[in-house]
Automatic annotation (TrEMBL):
Gene3D superfamilies to which the protein is assigned, alphabetical: Medium-chain alcohol dehydrogenases, catalytic domain, NAD(P)-binding Rossmann-like Domain
GO CC term (a single one): cytosol
Domain Enoyl reductase (ER): 11-323
GO molecular function: mRNA 3'-UTR AU-rich region binding; NADPH binding; quinone reductase (NADPH) activity; zinc ion binding
The protein's name: Quinone oxidoreductase
InterPro entries: ADH-like_C, ADH-like_N, ER, GroES-like_sf, NAD(P)-bd_dom_sf, QOR-like, Quin_OxRdtase/zeta-crystal_CS
Pfam families given in the database record: ADH_N, ADH_zinc_N
Length: 325
Protein backbone atom coordinates (compact mmCIF):
# COMPACT_ATOMS: atom_id res chain seq x y z
CA UNK A 1 0.00 0.00 0.00
CA UNK A 2 1.09 3.58 -0.57
CA UNK A 3 -0.24 6.95 0.52
CA UNK A 4 -2.33 9.42 -1.44
CA UNK A 5 -4.53 12.47 -0.98
CA UNK A 6 -8.20 11.76 -1.64
CA UNK A 7 -11.33 13.90 -1.81
CA UNK A 8 -14.53 12.23 -0.60
CA UNK A 9 -16.69 15.37 -0.69
CA UNK A 10 -16.20 18.75 -2.36
CA UNK A 11 -15.29 21.70 -0.19
CA UNK A 12 -12.38 23.69 1.18
CA UNK A 13 -8.81 22.53 1.75
CA UNK A 14 -9.96 20.52 4.78
CA UNK A 15 -11.54 17.88 2.51
CA UNK A 16 -8.09 16.75 1.34
CA UNK A 17 -7.40 13.59 3.34
CA UNK A 18 -4.10 11.69 3.47
CA UNK A 19 -4.76 7.95 3.48
CA UNK A 20 -3.59 4.56 2.31
CA UNK A 21 -4.45 3.69 -1.28
CA UNK A 22 -3.52 0.64 -3.32
CA UNK A 23 -2.09 1.90 -6.65
CA UNK A 24 -2.59 -1.49 -8.29
CA UNK A 25 -0.39 -3.21 -10.86
CA UNK A 26 0.16 -2.00 -14.40
CA UNK A 27 -1.86 -3.66 -17.12
CA UNK A 28 -1.29 -3.75 -20.85
CA UNK A 29 0.14 -0.45 -22.06
CA UNK A 30 0.51 0.89 -18.53
CA UNK A 31 3.33 1.58 -16.09
CA UNK A 32 3.60 2.03 -12.34
CA UNK A 33 5.30 5.33 -11.55
CA UNK A 34 6.88 6.11 -8.19
CA UNK A 35 6.55 9.86 -7.79
CA UNK A 36 9.43 12.04 -6.66
CA UNK A 37 7.71 15.43 -7.04
CA UNK A 38 4.13 16.53 -7.72
CA UNK A 39 3.04 19.87 -9.16
CA UNK A 40 0.50 22.12 -7.43
CA UNK A 41 -1.86 24.10 -9.66
CA UNK A 42 -4.86 26.37 -9.24
CA UNK A 43 -6.73 23.89 -11.39
CA UNK A 44 -6.47 21.41 -8.51
CA UNK A 45 -8.61 23.69 -6.34
CA UNK A 46 -11.35 23.71 -8.97
CA UNK A 47 -11.71 19.93 -8.77
CA UNK A 48 -11.50 20.02 -4.97
CA UNK A 49 -14.21 22.67 -4.61
CA UNK A 50 -16.48 21.13 -7.22
CA UNK A 51 -16.24 24.06 -9.65
CA UNK A 52 -15.02 21.44 -12.11
CA UNK A 53 -16.76 18.08 -11.66
CA UNK A 54 -14.54 15.05 -11.12
CA UNK A 55 -14.50 13.11 -14.42
CA UNK A 56 -15.25 9.80 -12.70
CA UNK A 57 -17.00 11.09 -9.60
CA UNK A 58 -15.80 10.90 -6.00
CA UNK A 59 -13.65 9.84 -4.26
CA UNK A 60 -10.98 11.57 -6.31
CA UNK A 61 -7.20 11.70 -6.12
CA UNK A 62 -6.47 15.21 -7.47
CA UNK A 63 -3.39 16.54 -9.20
CA UNK A 64 -2.53 16.77 -12.86
CA UNK A 65 1.27 16.79 -13.12
CA UNK A 66 4.18 14.93 -11.57
CA UNK A 67 7.61 13.45 -12.16
CA UNK A 68 9.07 10.21 -10.96
CA UNK A 69 10.64 6.90 -11.85
CA UNK A 70 9.16 3.93 -13.66
CA UNK A 71 8.80 1.19 -11.05
CA UNK A 72 7.17 -1.45 -13.24
CA UNK A 73 6.09 -1.69 -16.88
CA UNK A 74 3.09 -3.67 -18.04
CA UNK A 75 2.76 -5.86 -21.09
CA UNK A 76 3.18 -4.21 -24.46
CA UNK A 77 5.02 -1.12 -23.19
CA UNK A 78 7.82 -0.10 -25.55
CA UNK A 79 10.40 2.57 -24.87
CA UNK A 80 10.05 2.64 -21.09
CA UNK A 81 11.68 0.43 -18.49
CA UNK A 82 12.09 0.40 -14.70
CA UNK A 83 14.41 3.17 -13.59
CA UNK A 84 13.56 5.60 -16.38
CA UNK A 85 12.89 9.17 -15.27
CA UNK A 86 9.52 10.36 -16.55
CA UNK A 87 6.99 13.15 -16.20
CA UNK A 88 3.42 13.79 -17.26
CA UNK A 89 0.43 16.05 -17.08
CA UNK A 90 -3.10 14.65 -17.11
CA UNK A 91 -5.00 12.56 -16.20
CA UNK A 92 -5.93 13.38 -12.60
CA UNK A 93 -4.43 11.28 -9.83
CA UNK A 94 -1.00 12.79 -9.20
CA UNK A 95 -1.39 13.45 -5.44
CA UNK A 96 -0.01 10.01 -4.60
CA UNK A 97 3.25 8.29 -3.80
CA UNK A 98 2.65 5.83 -6.65
CA UNK A 99 0.17 5.47 -9.48
CA UNK A 100 -0.57 3.39 -12.54
CA UNK A 101 -0.81 5.43 -15.72
CA UNK A 102 -0.97 4.85 -19.48
CA UNK A 103 2.54 4.75 -20.89
CA UNK A 104 1.59 6.98 -23.83
CA UNK A 105 0.94 9.88 -21.44
CA UNK A 106 4.52 9.83 -20.15
CA UNK A 107 7.55 11.63 -21.55
CA UNK A 108 11.14 10.82 -20.67
CA UNK A 109 13.12 13.48 -18.86
CA UNK A 110 16.41 14.63 -20.36
CA UNK A 111 19.47 14.99 -18.15
CA UNK A 112 19.23 18.79 -18.17
CA UNK A 113 15.81 18.86 -16.47
CA UNK A 114 15.40 17.87 -12.81
CA UNK A 115 12.42 15.99 -11.37
CA UNK A 116 11.27 19.07 -9.46
CA UNK A 117 11.60 21.28 -12.54
CA UNK A 118 9.53 18.83 -14.55
CA UNK A 119 6.86 18.39 -11.87
CA UNK A 120 6.60 22.14 -11.53
CA UNK A 121 6.44 22.85 -15.25
CA UNK A 122 4.69 20.07 -17.14
CA UNK A 123 1.19 21.51 -16.85
CA UNK A 124 2.27 25.14 -16.53
CA UNK A 125 5.08 24.89 -19.07
CA UNK A 126 3.05 23.02 -21.66
CA UNK A 127 0.31 25.60 -21.10
CA UNK A 128 2.80 28.40 -21.79
CA UNK A 129 4.01 26.49 -24.85
CA UNK A 130 0.62 26.12 -26.51
CA UNK A 131 -0.47 29.65 -25.57
CA UNK A 132 2.63 31.32 -27.00
CA UNK A 133 3.37 29.03 -29.93
CA UNK A 134 0.05 27.60 -31.08
CA UNK A 135 -3.02 29.49 -29.80
CA UNK A 136 -1.27 32.70 -30.87
CA UNK A 137 2.16 32.46 -32.45
CA UNK A 138 4.09 35.21 -30.67
CA UNK A 139 6.70 36.84 -32.87
CA UNK A 140 9.18 39.73 -32.65
CA UNK A 141 7.42 43.07 -32.37
CA UNK A 142 4.19 41.73 -30.86
CA UNK A 143 2.85 43.35 -27.69
CA UNK A 144 1.22 40.93 -25.28
CA UNK A 145 -0.62 41.32 -21.97
CA UNK A 146 -0.41 38.44 -19.52
CA UNK A 147 -2.54 38.61 -16.38
CA UNK A 148 -1.28 36.97 -13.16
CA UNK A 149 2.29 37.51 -14.29
CA UNK A 150 3.76 36.23 -11.01
CA UNK A 151 1.84 32.96 -11.12
CA UNK A 152 3.26 29.65 -12.20
CA UNK A 153 2.26 29.94 -15.86
CA UNK A 154 2.94 33.67 -15.89
CA UNK A 155 6.58 33.39 -14.83
CA UNK A 156 7.32 30.78 -17.48
CA UNK A 157 5.38 32.64 -20.16
CA UNK A 158 7.12 35.95 -19.44
CA UNK A 159 10.56 34.48 -20.06
CA UNK A 160 9.47 32.54 -23.12
CA UNK A 161 7.60 35.46 -24.70
CA UNK A 162 10.59 37.75 -24.18
CA UNK A 163 12.79 35.14 -25.86
CA UNK A 164 10.36 35.17 -28.80
CA UNK A 165 10.89 38.91 -29.19
CA UNK A 166 7.64 40.33 -27.79
CA UNK A 167 7.06 43.37 -25.64
CA UNK A 168 5.75 41.63 -22.53
CA UNK A 169 3.28 43.41 -20.25
CA UNK A 170 1.95 41.77 -17.11
CA UNK A 171 -0.34 42.42 -14.16
CA UNK A 172 0.29 41.49 -10.54
CA UNK A 173 -1.14 42.40 -7.14
CA UNK A 174 1.79 43.42 -4.95
CA UNK A 175 5.20 45.09 -5.10
CA UNK A 176 6.95 41.77 -4.44
CA UNK A 177 5.08 40.06 -7.25
CA UNK A 178 5.80 42.92 -9.61
CA UNK A 179 9.53 42.61 -8.96
CA UNK A 180 9.34 38.84 -9.38
CA UNK A 181 7.61 39.20 -12.75
CA UNK A 182 10.15 41.77 -13.92
CA UNK A 183 12.89 39.30 -13.07
CA UNK A 184 11.19 36.76 -15.34
CA UNK A 185 11.03 38.56 -18.67
CA UNK A 186 8.33 41.19 -18.24
CA UNK A 187 9.11 44.62 -19.67
CA UNK A 188 6.26 46.28 -17.77
CA UNK A 189 4.18 45.07 -14.82
CA UNK A 190 0.99 46.83 -13.70
CA UNK A 191 -0.31 46.65 -10.14
CA UNK A 192 -3.95 45.90 -10.82
CA UNK A 193 -4.89 46.68 -7.20
CA UNK A 194 -4.03 50.37 -7.37
CA UNK A 195 -3.96 51.07 -11.13
CA UNK A 196 -6.40 50.92 -14.03
CA UNK A 197 -4.68 48.26 -16.12
CA UNK A 198 -6.49 49.33 -19.29
CA UNK A 199 -5.24 52.91 -18.96
CA UNK A 200 -1.77 51.64 -18.11
CA UNK A 201 -1.64 49.41 -21.21
CA UNK A 202 -2.70 52.33 -23.39
CA UNK A 203 0.07 54.45 -21.90
CA UNK A 204 2.74 51.74 -22.19
CA UNK A 205 1.90 51.02 -25.83
CA UNK A 206 1.41 54.65 -26.85
CA UNK A 207 -2.20 53.87 -27.64
CA UNK A 208 -1.36 51.02 -30.02
CA UNK A 209 -2.62 48.35 -27.56
CA UNK A 210 -1.84 44.62 -27.64
CA UNK A 211 -1.95 41.89 -30.23
CA UNK A 212 -3.08 39.30 -27.68
CA UNK A 213 -4.25 39.19 -24.07
CA UNK A 214 -3.78 36.03 -22.02
CA UNK A 215 -6.28 35.97 -19.16
CA UNK A 216 -6.48 33.28 -16.47
CA UNK A 217 -8.20 35.58 -13.95
CA UNK A 218 -11.66 35.74 -15.53
CA UNK A 219 -14.41 37.74 -13.87
CA UNK A 220 -12.26 40.52 -12.38
CA UNK A 221 -10.40 41.32 -15.63
CA UNK A 222 -13.24 40.98 -18.13
CA UNK A 223 -14.25 42.89 -20.21
CA UNK A 224 -11.32 45.21 -19.42
CA UNK A 225 -9.01 42.78 -21.18
CA UNK A 226 -10.87 43.40 -24.44
CA UNK A 227 -10.13 47.12 -24.17
CA UNK A 228 -6.39 46.31 -24.20
CA UNK A 229 -6.57 44.75 -27.66
CA UNK A 230 -5.86 46.19 -31.07
CA UNK A 231 -8.58 45.82 -33.71
CA UNK A 232 -8.73 42.13 -34.69
CA UNK A 233 -6.68 41.23 -31.61
CA UNK A 234 -7.11 37.94 -29.78
CA UNK A 235 -8.50 37.43 -26.26
CA UNK A 236 -7.33 34.11 -24.78
CA UNK A 237 -9.25 33.16 -21.66
CA UNK A 238 -7.59 30.09 -20.18
CA UNK A 239 -8.67 30.21 -16.52
CA UNK A 240 -10.94 31.86 -13.99
CA UNK A 241 -9.13 32.29 -10.67
CA UNK A 242 -11.47 35.17 -9.70
CA UNK A 243 -14.59 33.38 -10.94
CA UNK A 244 -16.13 32.61 -14.33
CA UNK A 245 -16.80 35.28 -16.92
CA UNK A 246 -20.52 36.06 -17.02
CA UNK A 247 -22.37 35.31 -20.25
CA UNK A 248 -21.98 38.21 -22.69
CA UNK A 249 -23.36 39.36 -26.01
CA UNK A 250 -21.00 38.35 -28.83
CA UNK A 251 -21.64 41.75 -30.39
CA UNK A 252 -19.22 43.24 -27.86
CA UNK A 253 -16.40 41.69 -29.90
CA UNK A 254 -17.41 43.61 -33.01
CA UNK A 255 -18.00 46.81 -31.08
CA UNK A 256 -14.50 46.71 -29.60
CA UNK A 257 -12.71 46.17 -32.90
CA UNK A 258 -13.72 42.90 -34.60
CA UNK A 259 -11.92 40.97 -31.87
CA UNK A 260 -11.33 37.25 -31.67
CA UNK A 261 -11.85 35.26 -28.48
CA UNK A 262 -11.01 31.70 -27.53
CA UNK A 263 -11.26 29.51 -24.44
CA UNK A 264 -8.56 26.86 -24.97
CA UNK A 265 -7.50 24.03 -22.72
CA UNK A 266 -4.15 22.27 -22.62
CA UNK A 267 -5.70 18.83 -22.84
CA UNK A 268 -7.02 19.48 -26.35
CA UNK A 269 -3.56 20.57 -27.46
CA UNK A 270 -1.81 17.44 -26.14
CA UNK A 271 -4.52 14.85 -26.81
CA UNK A 272 -2.46 13.38 -29.65
CA UNK A 273 0.81 11.70 -28.70
CA UNK A 274 2.70 13.55 -31.43
CA UNK A 275 1.56 16.91 -30.05
CA UNK A 276 2.47 15.95 -26.48
CA UNK A 277 5.96 14.92 -27.56
CA UNK A 278 6.49 18.08 -29.63
CA UNK A 279 5.29 20.37 -26.86
CA UNK A 280 7.38 18.60 -24.21
CA UNK A 281 10.48 18.70 -26.45
CA UNK A 282 10.07 22.46 -26.92
CA UNK A 283 9.57 22.96 -23.18
CA UNK A 284 12.53 20.82 -22.13
CA UNK A 285 14.76 22.57 -24.65
CA UNK A 286 14.12 26.06 -23.25
CA UNK A 287 14.50 24.81 -19.66
CA UNK A 288 17.70 22.87 -20.36
CA UNK A 289 19.36 25.75 -22.23
CA UNK A 290 18.41 28.29 -19.59
CA UNK A 291 16.05 30.36 -21.72
CA UNK A 292 13.25 29.59 -19.26
CA UNK A 293 14.05 29.11 -15.58
CA UNK A 294 11.65 26.73 -13.88
CA UNK A 295 12.14 27.75 -10.26
CA UNK A 296 10.35 26.05 -7.38
CA UNK A 297 9.52 28.68 -4.77
CA UNK A 298 7.56 26.50 -2.32
CA UNK A 299 7.74 22.88 -1.22
CA UNK A 300 5.23 21.03 0.95
CA UNK A 301 5.04 17.43 2.06
CA UNK A 302 2.27 15.56 0.24
CA UNK A 303 0.60 15.05 3.63
CA UNK A 304 0.37 18.86 3.94
CA UNK A 305 -1.58 19.32 0.71
CA UNK A 306 -4.42 21.09 2.57
CA UNK A 307 -2.02 23.79 3.79
CA UNK A 308 -0.60 24.11 0.28
CA UNK A 309 -4.11 24.66 -1.13
CA UNK A 310 -4.91 27.25 1.53
CA UNK A 311 -1.72 29.15 0.77
CA UNK A 312 -2.34 28.97 -2.98
CA UNK A 313 -5.89 30.29 -2.72
CA UNK A 314 -4.79 32.91 -0.21
CA UNK A 315 -2.28 34.19 -2.81
CA UNK A 316 0.59 33.47 -0.42
CA UNK A 317 2.57 31.59 -3.05
CA UNK A 318 4.55 32.77 -6.06
CA UNK A 319 5.68 30.86 -9.09
CA UNK A 320 5.85 27.10 -8.84
CA UNK A 321 5.05 24.85 -5.89
CA UNK A 322 5.67 21.13 -5.54
CA UNK A 323 4.44 18.46 -3.16
CA UNK A 324 7.03 15.93 -2.03
CA UNK A 325 5.70 12.37 -1.47
Amino acid sequence: MSKAIRIHANGGPEVLTYEEVDPGRPGSGQVLVRHTAIGLNFLDTYYRSGLYPAPNGLPLIPGGEAAGVVAEAGEGVDGLKPGDRVAYTTPLGAYAQERVIAADRLVKLPDGVSDEQAAASMLKGLTAEYLLRRTFSVKPGDAILFHAAAGGVGLLAGQWAKHLGATVIGTAGSADKIELAKAHGYDHVINYRDSDFVAAVKEITGGKLCDVVYDSVGKDTFPGSLDCLKPRGLFVGFGQSSGPIAPFNMAILSQKGSLYATRPTLFTYIAKRVDLEAGAAALFEVIANGTVRSVVNQRYALADAARAHADLEGRRTTGATVLIP
